[in-house]
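Example for tutorial group B:
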């Protein structure tokens, strides 16, 4: 019986890093690197064309950065599981990546085995977000966004419903279907939620809901 192999693409704008990553992953026979990319555009094209199981993507790359690649992959519902490899990531970008559904965040200055452990967990269906620095960044950014919020008591019942559904991961169209209203009405309610809570994005709203325990059912 042929052993199952997981396909991987690597994206980093430093050739030596790409070579080193390829050599590292080659030590695990269950993984096969099928393509490499030196910028975000090439990485996204490879994901679209080759549909690898996993893409290990540097966050800071020319053309499209890692977050751009992740946003597009999510918007296009591409099945590839994206893992970020980064030297540094701001708290805000870390939280956005987590909210978008990144499967792993691995720091470049960590032990090389961390990436292999991450890949093992990701292909098994898990997420690799346990690094203390990642968890600390999420807590800091969540607290920062909560401190700048307005009072939740200012929301109407319908606005609270819209907030709950949006932060549980539904799109505006799905929220409209759930509440039996138009998509335009959802957008108006969502705008009012942002204004009343002094928030500027879905990411900030999700952080607010996570901190209060008000997202989901």
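The residue assignment follows.
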């Amino acid at each position: 019986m042929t052993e199952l192999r997981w396909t991987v693409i690597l994206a980093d704008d430093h050739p030596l890093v790409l070579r080193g990553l390829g050599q590292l992953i080659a030590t695990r026979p269950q993984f096969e690197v099928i393509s490499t990319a030196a910028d975000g555009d090439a990485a996204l094209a490879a994901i679209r064309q080759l549909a690898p199981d996993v893409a290990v993507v540097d966050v800071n790359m020319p053309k499209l950065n890692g977050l751009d690649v992740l946003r597009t992959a999510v918007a296009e519902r591409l099945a590839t599981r994206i893992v970020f490899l980064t030297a540094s990531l701001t708290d805000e970008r870390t939280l956005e990546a987590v909210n978008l559904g990144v499967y792993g965040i691995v720091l470049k200055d960590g032990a090389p085995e961390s990436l292999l452990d991450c890949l093992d967990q990701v292909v098994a269906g898990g997420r690799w977000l346990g690094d203390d620095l990642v968890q600390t960044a999420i807590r800091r950014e969540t607290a920062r966004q909560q401190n700048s919020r307005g009072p939740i008591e200012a929301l109407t019942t319908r606005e609270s419903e819209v907030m709950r559904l949006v932060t549980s991961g539904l799109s505006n169209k799905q929220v409209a279907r759930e509440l039996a209203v138009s998509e335009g009405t959802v957008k108006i309610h969502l705008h009012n939620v942002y204004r009343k809570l002094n928030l500027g994005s879905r990411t900030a709203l999700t952080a607010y809901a996570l901190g209060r325990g008000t997202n989901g059912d």
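The chain has two domains: 6-143, 148-212. Compare this with the pattern of hydrophobic and polar residues in the output above.
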